[in-house]
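Final report, closing paragraph on structural work. Over the funding period we assembled a curated collection of sequence-structure pairs, and we close with a single example.
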Amino acid sequence: MKGGEHLTVKLNKRAFEHSKRLIEKGSYVFDEKDMWSEHKPSAQEENEYIKKYNFDEYGKWYLVVDADEKEDTKGRYKFPYGDFAKVHRCGGAGWRKQGGTI
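Its predicted structure, as stored:
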């Protein structure tokens, strides 16, 4: 980024609440930190999920929204935490590995 530019990202409160509900009902996987590459949904799985549901539902699986990205695009959503069924510990671990923070 150049001087003066900044990302316009914010916590996706719907996703945060969704993740809490999933954890409360036991829908989580306490997997190893480096397993995300094996557990994350593929691009095809993401596309199928969006087609079956919509971008609002897709967005509930990403803890950050990038307001600089267009609505109804995958690029708008950052920091995935699950596989469209369960919360994965390794999803969050991947953010730290990439240097991301919320």
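Residues 5 and 68 are 11 Å apart (CA to CA). The radius of gyration is 14 Å. We thank the funder for supporting this effort.
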